[in-house]
Amino acid sequence: MEMEHAAEFVTGARRRRLKVGRVIRTTVLPHTLLCLLGVAFLAPFAWMFLTSIKSVDEIFKLPVVWLPTRIQWQNYIDAVQTIPFQRYTVNTLLICVLSIGGQLLASPLVAYGLARIPFKGRDVIFYIMMGTMILPYQVTMIPVYVMYNKLNLVDSYVPLILPNFFGSAFYIFLLRQFFRNIPLELTESAKIDGAGEFRIYSTIILPLAKPAIYSVALFTFLSEWGDFLGPLLYLNDPVKWTLSIGLKAFIGEYKVDWGPLMAASTIFTVPIIVLYFFVQRQFIQGITMTGFK
């Protein structure tokens, strides 16, 4: 009996060790790694915020001052007052909203045609469209600028907004992969009931594709909100500038106002973080379900 109890004790201890090791491998180590990666990604934003509430002396002081001795909220007041911050915010939001509307109008429609409507040459058109993603923006930048200049559209928001109404190859690809995962039986039964392609698209496909739609909207917002090169090329009138261009006001020829610049950059980053927290569930679902079989 004693031998049996000893064997059971050893077996139970071994099971406990295996269970603890499995918990460490499957839970503790992955979460620790994710926490470290999260801190690494959060560090630049934390440093930007801390710099925005420091005085000029503390920003350049050595050894590094991690926490300010006195919080300088005046940097935020200077950031808002140095440039027409409200005007630039309205301009940026206008471009973002219209660009999102254009992408959500064009990209899902093209993706539906390439994913659900069989026609001759469909795959060829898709591969040509995907080939356009290889071309960097710098290759088409000059000829596109010349085209808009001849149309007298430079110094307006049209060159920044209009391309979105023709869709984007990346967003079309993303939505096409999502649409292909929707069972064909749904659309076939709707066709039997007499529904046309547009009705199927609007009443069946789009409601099922909300996660992918949210992802496209978020990607478009991030792209337009942080766009610097586009407004720099096409907007000459300072009244029409966006926030990304307005931040240049803090960078002089011989001096950089780091406190107000970091304060303005912090304010510039806040809407992106807030928007992501609102749509993170749909965004993650849209990304994970794209291409899922």
Task: Describe this structure as you would to a colleague.
This protein is mainly α. The chain folds into two domains: 51 residues; 211 residues, MetI-like fold (Orthogonal Bundle), CATH 1.10.3720.10. Helices cover 74% and strands 0% of the residues. Helix 1 packs across helix 14 and helix 11 packs antiparallel against helix 14. The longest helix is centred in the first third of the chain and has 51 residues. It is flat. 23% of the residues are buried. The model has no long low-confidence stretch (mean pLDDT 84).
SS-based class: mainly alpha
Rough outline: flat
Could you say how many structural domains there are in total?
A: 2
CATH topology of the largest domain: MetI-like fold
Q: Measure the end-to-end span.
A: 55 Å
What is the assigned CATH homologous superfamily of the largest domain? MetI-like
Spans of at least 5 consecutive residues whose pLDDT stays below 50 are none
Number of strands: 0
Helix coverage percent of residues? over 70%
CATH class of the largest domain, please?
Mainly Alpha
Oligomer: single chain
Portion in beta strands: under 5%
